[in-house]
Design the sequence.
């Protein structure tokens, strides 16, 4: 089994959402460039695209490692020695299959993740592996090193066992003692990343709000939202080294087919370039506070599409047209992009946002 294959998968057919009884009068003429579409408010029974055990395991134990910057090679070396007293993913047999994963933050996509091998059936794994990052020292001093321990599950998604974060800006590289192996207690994930299972990569995109697509018209016209999907970075590989990804867009609360637009699929790369612009019209100013742009990235393989990660760009108020909805759950970065777009009409606002797990809404037939 290829160890790089992430197993938090979900097929497109596995999500469902019930139709809300009342249809709001608002946003009924929201349409995509592919034609008019009517809108029903959406709420209630959202089903998770998978179930898992993230966050249920108690975080305990320690990790022993050392870091060193090798000037000659211009490399950061992270020597991962061992862990002890980890939480048991298999409670009955009191054991886990742990591995250690490293990222340089804040831009986890840029340098990529590095992983140790999995050590099976133990709570005290010994690795003695060096994880290397080719990086200039000046840049390294702006980073944080994140080391996390995971239990590898062949059939379900992997379970988080704890993490350590080192701020490399304040690290004393000249101190000899800092090159020695040290024990660090594992900590629980720092919010708001608590629901991020594994890194799902990022999307580079730009949004533009055009309040008057046809200037100078006497009659009031509705506005347009333009979504320019540029590229994705560091997408997770779910099946070995193969990836054939595409991006789908829906403007919630409208989940009808006409609200859905998608890019073409781009194969054989974890950094696909799409350069695809989608236009949605029918936006009145007041609709901007109620709607949410849902962008999801999928891996297309044979007859199935597997969910890789997504974004929800809106005000994240938890409500839409007076109804409480689960999908108005934008992160602070997603909200910041939407706010900038609303406040700077007729201007492309660009961002690179981390893809995340979504509870995906779909109206049942």
Sequence:
């Amino acid at each position: 089994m290829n160890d790089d294959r992430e197993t938090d998968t979900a097929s497109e057919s596995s999500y469902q959402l019930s139709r809300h009884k009342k249809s709001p009068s608002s946003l009924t003429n929201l349409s995509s460039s592919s034609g008019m579409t009517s809108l029903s408010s959406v709420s209630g029974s959202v089903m998770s695209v998978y179930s898992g055990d993230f966050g249920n395991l108690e975080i305990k134990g320690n990790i022993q490692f050392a870091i060193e910057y090798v000037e000659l090679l211009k490399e950061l070396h992270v020597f991962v020695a061992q862990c002890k007293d980890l939480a048991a993913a298999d409670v009955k047999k009191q054991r886990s299959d742990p591995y250690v994963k490293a990222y340089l933050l804040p831009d986890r996509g840029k340098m990529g993740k590095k992983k140790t091998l999995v050590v099976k059936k133990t709570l005290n794994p010994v690795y003695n592996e060096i994880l290397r990052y080719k990086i200039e020292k000046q840049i390294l001093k702006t980073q944080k090193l994140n080391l996390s321990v995971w239990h590898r599950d062949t059939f379900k998604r992997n379970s988080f066992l704890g993490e350590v974060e080192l701020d490399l800006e304040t690290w004393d590289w000249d101190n000899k003692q800092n090159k020695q192996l040290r024990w660090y207690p594992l900590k629980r994930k720092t919010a708001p990343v608590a629901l991020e299972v594994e890194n799902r990569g990022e999307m580079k995109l730009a949004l533009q709000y055009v309040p008057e697509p046809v200037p100078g018209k006497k009659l009031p016209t509705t506005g347009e939202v333009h979504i320019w999907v540029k590229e994705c970075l560091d997408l997770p590989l779910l099946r070995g080294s193969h990836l054939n990804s595409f991006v789908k867009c829906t403007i919630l609360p409208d989940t009808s087919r006409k609200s859905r637009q998608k890019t073409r699929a781009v194969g054989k790369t974890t950094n696909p370039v799409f350069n695809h612009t989608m236009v949605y019209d029918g936006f009145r100013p007041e609709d901007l506070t109620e709607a949410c742009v849902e962008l999801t990235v999928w891996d297309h393989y044979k007859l199935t599409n597997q969910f890789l990660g997504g974004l929800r760009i809106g005000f994240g108020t938890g409500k839409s047209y007076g109804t409480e909805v689960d999908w108005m759950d934008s992160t602070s970065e997603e909200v910041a992009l939407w706010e900038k777009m609303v406040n700077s009409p007729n201007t492309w606002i660009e961002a690179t946002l981390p893809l995340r797990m979504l509870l995906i809404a779909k109206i049942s037939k």
